[in-house]
Specification:
single chain; 431 residues; FAD/NAD(P)-binding domain; 9-stranded mixed beta sheet; 8-stranded mixed beta sheet; globular; binds flavin-adenine dinucleotide
Length: 431
């Protein structure tokens, strides 16, 4: 370990876990049979379970690790309700009305999660703080201005262009060339939100079992038999909610997902004044690079939480920290003396068309592929899927009929990623 950059109490774990340690739910014995078996205990799985359990379906959620161990307790806590492809791109692919419906549906997810958290009274530091989308060069700033001026009709939202000379009100850095404030984006503490979901799943009567990997699924005359690390279980319906961690147990979904590492660090505790000088408005931040970085204050305003895609497959956060810290110092050289107290990573599920997907294939229900915007999308998709599998046709959404594509010879191991990352690094320098 490079001792000079790490604090004495450094932990290679998500900062969020300090306040919200992982729930074990390490029961040894599984029920013989359930109505609904959900594989994966992140936002997708738990929101789905809330729906099925509240509707009276005997529901079990299993996870191969501790409950919520995947992305849902280790993300950046930035909520956007945006999908990666812009309106023009979607229009080109699917026509104007479908492009409208898809963009609107993702925005609905942003509205939905806020009212869900409010109505369920989940204590998770939800803040309607807005996002500063920072331009990494003048050309990108111009593109942000165009975006603000030409919002698709019916999809307008409050956007404020910030010129680089006014930028000090948003960020104490000369790195960016102005930016765009997206007022509706929010922040929360992802692990506290996840814990709130755990409590609601349990009080709805569903069960959670951790350290219980689903290893194979066999179709039976009615329903399925699933072999897990803790024995076999029969289920009438199965939901695959494994996103970036999807493995061979659901090979069809695995062939459609690209797991991409995302890396985060937390600085040690700093003076609140110092943190607030760096990011005076407590917004969430991301930038216009393809290899995006994202950052924010911690909810208590004592730390900077900084994330980015600084590696492809590295799963040891100690090894990825120096490169990530270097990215942070490019933007905030003032943090050169701040030690790193936490560093962690997770695998985000990307799809080939950069859209999230949900539906049913061969009797298995699934929702996944949120491409890094999973807080509200995974929650909303899980919620809708929970209703769909009970036959509620009114719960279908615009994403239901989008084909979930794969590529020839792709089986789930993204051999092409290293080359793609190099290409994007180069592209970000010039475009
Ligand atoms: C570092 C990082 C930062 C991020 N930042 C943001 C952000 O700021 N905003 C945002 O919107 N999104 C962000 N994301 C993405 C977001 O967290 C995810 O899209 C979302 O949490 C996905 O939820 P999920 O429930 O679908 O999957 P996950 O939460 O990943 O859960 C999948 C679970 O499936 C389990 N599993 C896999 N295979 C099996 C099996 N065979 N048997 C049993 N269990 C299995 C895994 O152990 C895992 O716990 C970030 C992700 C990372 C990693």
């Amino acid at each position: 370990m490079n001792s000079s950059i790490f604090s004495d109490d450094f932990r290679p774990e998500p900062y969020w876990w300090d306040e919200t340690p992982r729930t074990d739910c390490d029961e040894k014995v599984l029920p013989e049979e359930v109505d609904v078996l959900i594989i994966g205990s992140g936002y997708t799985g738990l929101n789905c379970a809330i729906e099925t359990a509240r509707a009276g379906r005997d529901t079990l959620v299993i996870d191969s690790q501790s409950i919520g161990w995947g992305c849902s307790s280790r993300n950046g806590g930035q909520i956007s309700g945006e999908i990666k492809p812009g309106f023009e791109e979607l229009q080109h692919r699917y026509g104007e009305s479908k492009a409208f419906a898809l963009t609107k549906e993702a925005r609905n997810a942003l509205e939905w999660i806020q009212s869900f958290i409010d109505s369920e009274n989940i204590d998770c530091d939800l803040r309607r703080c807005g996002r500063y989308l920072a331009a990494h060069n003048p050309r990108q700033f111009q593109q942000l201005c165009d975006l603000a001026e030409n919002q698709p009709r019916g999809l307008e939202q409050p956007l404020t262009v910030v010129e680089s000379r006014q930028q000090a009100t948003e960020i104490d850095s000369d790195y960016y060339h102005g930016g765009l404030v997206i007022e509706r984006h929010c922040s929360l503490d992802p692990a506290k939100y996840h814990q709130g979901l755990v409590e609601r799943v349990l009080s709805a009567g569903a069960r959670l079992v951790g350290y219980c990997e689903a290893r194979s699924i066999q179709r039976e005359r009615s329903g399925f038999s699933v072999l897990t690390g803790k024995g076999s279980i029969r289920a009438a319906k199965i939901v695959v909610a494994t996103s970036g961690y999807t493995g061979s147990v659901s090979a069809w979904q695995r062939r459609r997902l690209i797991p991409i590492g995302s890396y985060m660090l937390a600085t040690e505790e700093l003076d609140i004044d110092r943190v607030q000088r760096l990011l005076p408005r407590d917004r969430v931040f991301s930038d216009t690079r393809k290899l995006v970085v994202y950052f924010r204050q911690s909810p208590d305003a004592r730390r900077i939480l900084f994330g980015g895609r600084v590696s492809v497959f590295e799963s040891d956060p100690v090894k990825s920290t120096p490169a990530l810290r270097q990215e942070m110092l490019r933007i905030f050289p003032q943090l050169a003396d701040a030690k790193i107290s936490h560093s962690w990573m997770g695998f985000v599920g990307f799809s080939f068309d950069y859209l999230p997907h949900l539906g049913e294939h061969d009797g298995l229900y699934y929702a996944m592929g949120y491409c890094g915007s999973g807080i509200c999308l995974a929650s909303y998709f899980g919620h809708k899927l929970g209703r769909q599998l009970q036959g509620d046709t009114g719960a279908r959404i615009a994403f239901n009929d989008i084909p979930f594509q794969t590529r020839p010879l792709y089986s789930g191991k993204p051999w092409f990623l290293a080359g793609a990352v190099q290409y994007y690094q180069l592209r970000d320098r010039f475009i």
